[in-house]
Amino acid sequence: MSFDAFISYSSNDKPAADATCAVLEGAGIRCWIAPRDIRTGAEYGGAIIDAIDHCRVMILVFSSSANASQQIHREIERAVSKGVPILPVRIEEVKPTKSMEYFLGAIHWLDALSPPLEQHLHKLADTVKAMLKIEVEPRDTPAGGDDVRKLFAASGAADARVARAQSAKPKVATTGLLATDSARPKWLLPAISAAALLVMIAGGAWPIISAWVRPRARSRHGQEHPPRFEPRPRHAIF
Prior knowledge:
- The protein is of the alpha/beta class.
- The protein folds into three domains: 5-132, 3-Layer(aba) Sandwich (Rossmann fold); 147-176, no CATH class; 185-236, no CATH class.
- It has nine helices and five strands.
- The chain has helices at residues 14-26, 44-54, 64-67, 70-81, 98-104, 117-132, 146-155, 158-168, 188-221; strands at residues 5-8, 31-32, 57-62, 86-90, 110-111.
- It is rod-shaped, with a radius of gyration of 44 Å.
């Protein structure tokens, strides 16, 4: 067995006992509670005895039902005989019986009479952690803390963290040809490409066009007109 707290309660107070167990375990305190932790086929009384013998503290959910329960009396007597400290949590305004007072008379009680119950249970968890010297890191540790950095280092995910940080940076909008896809008109690149293609076609076809136009000009007017541009050598056409 490996646990810290044994929760003693009457079956009539099961909702309060379950809430107590949930808060303690949420704070990192390992709990034993019946019938959850009794193995299938195990003898009930024997399981209770073994759990009390191996716990570090007993949490007593005290009410009128617990006050009248002989089973609770036996559990408390066992804990006292084994030197297990007891922390009573009183959820009802009830005077303990003489037998109960005999074992719990000198113990400081935690009153959880005023609602909500949860705030009293968190105080109980702090008390148990201090008593047992349980160090538990808070669950809402902010991102970037030492624990988070250790996890990144241990898992070798530092590079992934840097990559995510870079991708999370806001993109700076630019203008002109360097604009992002969202800022650049969709027609801009096709228009530039078409213009460049036309320039290339015009530059390569100019000698052919000039050679075809000059003879037509002579035949139409009967005389040769001086060319406006220096013609290229004949062989350059072919």
